[in-house]
Amino acid sequence: MRKHKSSVSQATSYKEIGEFWDTYDLADFWDKTKEVSFETDIESEVIYYAVDKMLSEKIRTIAQKRGVSPDTLVNLWVQEKLQEQIVS
After folding, report:
1. Which DSSP helix (H) or strand (E) runs through 26?
2. pLDDT digits (tens, 9 = 90+) for 72-88
3. How far apart are CA 70 and CA 76, in angstroms?
4. 3-class DSSP state for residue 80?
5. What is the pLDDT of residues 35-44, one digit of tens each?
6. How far apart are CA 28 and CA 77, in angstroms?
7. Structure pTM?
């Protein structure tokens, strides 16, 4: 296993890498970069849950006022509620 996870920062952990890049700008190290190519295949899985029609209309109204999609709003709310349950 390699001692360093990053050739630029010489960091040994992902936390150290993050701290390094919070401090420095890639432009300062551009001469140490090289061109690479790779393919990704990212697919998001969507699962649908039934929501009462009146509840759905209220969600749409609130989402529109906040400038987000209803899907985003519901996901944020569910994440918040789950976090509350984990902490409790």
Report:
1. none
2. 999 999 999 999 988 76
3. 10
4. helix
5. 889 888 888 7
6. 40
7. 0.49
Stated length of the chain? 88
Long-range contacts of 55-58 (CB under 8 A, 24+ apart): none
Instruction: Please tell me the distance from the alpha carbon of residue 10 to that of residue 16, in angstroms, as a whole number.
Output: 9
Distance CA 43, CA 1 (A): 30
Cα dihedral: 59, 64, 67, 71 (round 10)? 40
CA distance 23 to 47: 39
Return the structure tokens found at 37: 């190519």
Whole-angstrom Cα distance, residue 83 to residue 59?
Answer: 20
CB 16 within 8 A of CB 9: yes
The residue ranges of every structural domain in the chain are: 1-31, 53-87
Two tokens, residue 9: 């920062």
State the angle between helix axes of 53-66 and 70-87 in degrees (0 to 180), rounded to the nearest 10.
100
